[in-house]
Design brief:
There is one protein chain. By secondary structure, this protein is mostly helical. The protein is built from five helices and two strands; from the N terminus they run ααβαβαα. About 70% of the residues lie in helices and about 5% in strands. Strands 1-2 form a two-stranded antiparallel ribbon. The mean pLDDT is about 85.
Length: about 140
């Protein structure tokens, strides 16, 4: 069983998947920072300078805080601002991945068009001889 596991792990596609997951996690953090540190403050400034993550509706009468973190400590809240931030995060990430896949597909198509077409291989000598005999017989 240990040998099978070692063979499984040493396959190229498993390693490619591991690298992809690690890079994807790092890329997700970059997009998360882009949304939280750059985009959402601009949107917050447009909508009155409020932190978009702190948009929530209290679901309990005991909640009277103005920040989401404090409100969660007081009781149940409907944190729609956090959801909107995460949804925007997803949309940006999905769009960037779409652009990357589109670029790779365009590159593949371009390489396929530029690939020289190999000339047809010459038929074996016996097939060429038989074709010649057939053509001579057809002329008679």
């Amino acid at each position: 069983m240990l040998k099978e596991f070692q063979e499984f792990i040493s396959r190229g596609n498993v390693m490619d998947l591991a690298v992809g997951v690690i890079i994807g996690a790092a890329f997700g953090k970059i997009v998360d920072s882009l949304v939280n540190d750059i985009i959402m403050p601009i949107i917050g400034a447009i909508f009155g300078g409020l932190d978009f993550n702190n948009y929530f509706l209290p679901l309990s009468s005991a909640v009277n805080a103005t920040s989401l973190a404090e409100a969660k400590r007081q009781g149940a809240v409907f944190a729609y601002g956090s959801f909107i931030t995460v949804a925007l995060n997803f949309i940006i990430l999905a769009f960037i991945i779409f652009l990357m896949v589109k670029a790779v597909n365009d590159l593949r198509r371009r390489l396929e068009r530029e690939k020289p077409v190999a000339p047809a291989a010459a038929p074996p000598a016996d097939v060429a001889l038989l074709t010649e005999i057939r053509d001579l017989l057809a002329r008679k």
